[in-house]
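Annex B.
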Amino acid sequence: MREDVAVKRWGFVLSSLLVTSACTAVPELPAPPSSPEPTVATACPESGVRVAAGPSEAATGLRVLGLRLTNCGERPYDLDGYPLLRVLDTDGEPLKVEVARGSAGIATVEGFDAPPEPLTLWPGETAETQLMWRNTVTGNGAPQVGESLSIAPAEGRPWQPVEAGGQYPDGLHIDVGSTGTLGVRAWHR
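DUF4232 domain-containing protein: predicted structure tokens.
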């Protein structure tokens, strides 16, 4: 009888070990997916910088739109002064809009007329500028509305589109009215 008890005990111990090891075994996880190829939205342009539209403010006909330049390249990027801008219609054609440095008498906004200072952006760093205009319509002309922007961060730098992002699903809607004047602030941190 002692053999029967010993066999039963070992059988119990072995089956308990099998159940315990089955419960604590770590399942084999699938290998993580390989990194996807960069998409147009995440790929860094050849220029080494990306410019995206930020929040806009509109009050009593005054419009202010922020633009953020990010150095997504691998080298320092120098800025000194004002960006060059083109306001584009729905077909991508430039509107006849005057882009003036500073506030251009459109409104008095703190810091907008501050003189430019040289900036060096290291990879990952950003600089900002703002655009200012009024949606004023007079009897002298038809109102103009731009749906996108093209920017050259400085004289002699390549032109590139400003990324509108998800907050502007219908385009940037730059309603410069019939005055056709846009003020641009110097690049700043």
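The domain at 49-184 is CATH 2.60.40 (Immunoglobulin-like). Helices lie at 2-24. Further annotation is deferred to the next reporting cycle.
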